[in-house]
Structure formats: C-alpha cells, structure tokens
Amino acid sequence: MQVAPRTYRSWKSKAPAARTVTDAVIVKALKDTAEKPESLYGRRKMTAWLRREGHAVARWTG
C-alpha cells in the first residue's frame, strides 16, 4: 500500500495522544509484576496496588 510522503510526514510529526501514553505506562507497570506476588492479584487488588504505586488509574483500568 502506497502512502504519499506528505501524508506520512504529517502523521509522523503528530505527538501520540495522552491516553496512549498513560496506557503504555500502566501496561509496563503491569508487565513488571511478573514473577512477583502482585501478579496473582485480581482486578480490584491490582487497581489498588497501582494507586499505591502512584499511578492515577480508574477503577475499570486495572
């Protein structure tokens, strides 16, 4: 599929959305819990753990 150079440069110059950035930070924090006791937590406990770690998460995020 060909994309015009001007279209590609326009897309490349835009900063990622704030939600994309915060989601990436939270996913990294969740992946870092592998092989730790926190990896066994359910949704509610993981949300509480993320909040204790300083992440601003909604209750449906974890």
Short description:
The protein is mainly α and 62 residues long.
Core attributes:
mainly alpha, 0% strand, 53% helix, 62 residues
Would you kindly provide a written description of the structure presented here, covering whatever features stand out?
The protein is mainly α. It has one domain (16-62). Helix content is 53%, strand content 0%. It has helices at 5-13, 18-31, 43-52. The model has no long low-confidence stretch (mean pLDDT 87).
Please summarize the sheet with the most strands.
Answer: none
Number of domains: 1
Give me the secondary-structure category. mainly alpha
Report the span from N to C terminus: 37 Å
What is the average of the pLDDT values? 87
Secondary structure tally: strands: 0
Query: How do the helices and strands follow one another from N- to C-terminus?
Result: HHH
Give the helices and strands, then pairings.
Layout: H1 5-13, H2 18-31, H3 43-52
